[in-house]
Design a protein that fits this description.
It is a single chain. The chain is an alpha/beta fold and 312 residues long. It is built from eight helices and twelve strands. The termini are far apart. Bound molecules: uridine-5'-diphosphate-xylopyranose. Uridine-5'-diphosphate-xylopyranose is lined by residues 55, 57, 94-96, 150, 152, 164-165, 168, 180-182, 187, 189, 223, 246, 249. GO terms for molecular function: NAD+ binding; UDP-glucuronate decarboxylase activity. Its main location: Golgi.
Length: 312
């Protein structure tokens, strides 16, 4: 919008929130449509960022059929829209297409190691078939596609109850509750800050790279190290609590970003601690907001008719 583009946001608010975009409402380049991409959409656009789908494991596992519909029928609808209006479509794919990887770090030419009938399959396989659909539309119908494989991302405007590790640990640390580590905590992840991802998505959309590109920050940590880091940054005395391992949890994950560097001139620039401090600040404000804005119904005053005294 700041570059002069007209932006239409389409959301069914399953995991999104109006509050995340309310500061744009009224801007002449902004429009918000309450719509589920599982239903067809008829609008005129030049570029489609197809970001729809719950992304947090608890959210996408909550209703696996809906997750599958969003990633399959939703993607078909968006590709159909792209074909009809001649738009370019960018698919938000995921590092989860690599499953529990046997190649480390993960390069784009790795085919992945996914359990097709496990609890994560609705998302992993949903995104894999979404990629397949993009390339079928490209080959058969000439639709221009871009595929971003997004690695773990965090930042302000994440939902506090999102259920992913960053929001869980920050909330737990702030509230003095134990930080819940699933399994031994030796599994690794590499976290990128949201503004780096947004820059990568825009660079990819406007590039001529139609094959998949990893977008992530390659700085890798174990989840246990990550718990300690957040505890220290929050200044919290919370304990660390080990819970049972999540089924099919990828044990190692780190993007190889050579392709993005070479072909998009992109790499993440926000250091992990700086990004985490921004997220911690946001969650502190969110907790204050919640405390001040909870709707507590006021008791109705008794209606007393004038001129008459009530006796019990
Ligand atoms: O409270 C928690 C939450 C999570 N974890 C662990 O922390 C690691 C990261 O878990 P998250 O839920 O944040 O995210 P995951 O890496 O499992 O999945 C994510 O992958 C990349 C994206 O496509 C998605 O955002 C999401 O599916 C996992 O090993 C998980 O078991 C904890 O130890 N404690």
């Amino acid at each position: 919008m700041m570059d002069g583009h007209e932006v239409t946001v389409v959301d069914n608010f399953f995991t999104g929130r109006k509050r995340n975009v309310e500061h744009w409402i009224g801007h002449e380049n902004f429009e918000l449509i309450n719509h589920d991409v599982v239903e067809p959409l008829y609008i005129e656009v030049d570029q489609i960022y197809h970001l729809a789908s719950p992304a947090s494991p608890p959210s996408y596992m909550y209703n696996p059929i809906k997750t599958l519909k969003t990633n399959t029928i939703g993607t078909l609808n968006m590709l159909g829209l792209a074909k009809r209006v001649g738009a370019r479509l960018l698919l938000a794919s995921t590092s989860e297409v690599y499953g529990d990887p046997e190649v480390h770090p993960q390069t784009e030419d790795y085919w992945g190691h996914v359990n097709p009938i496990g609890p994560r399959a609705c998302y992993d396989e949903g995104k894999r078939v979404a990629e397949t659909m993009c390339y079928a539309y490209m080959k058969q119908e000439g639709v221009e596609v871009r595929v971003a494989r997004i690695f773990n991302t965090f930042g302000p405007r994440m939902h506090m109850n999102d259920g992913r590790v960053v929001s869980n640990f920050i909330l737990q640390a702030r509230q003095g509750e134990p930080l819940t580590v699933y399994g031994s905590g030796s599994q690794t992840r590499a976290f990128q800050y949201v503004s780096d991802l947004v820059n990568g998505l825009v660079a990819l959309m406007n590039s001529n790279v139609s094959s998949p590109v990893n977008l992530g920050n390659p700085e890798e940590h174990t989840i246990l190290e990550f718990a300690q880091l957040i505890k220290n940054l929050v200044g919290s005395g919370s304990e660390i609590q080990f819970l049972s391992e999540a089924q099919d949890d990828p044990q190692k994950r780190k993007p190889d970003i050579k392709k993005a560097k070479l072909m998009l001139g992109w790499e993440p620039v926000v250091p992990l601690e700086e990004g985490l401090n921004k997220a911690i600040h946001y969650f502190r404000k969110e907790l204050e907001y919640q405390a001040n804005n909870q709707y507590i119904p006021k008791p109705k005053p008794a209606r007393v008719k004038k001129g008459r005294t009530r006796h019990s």
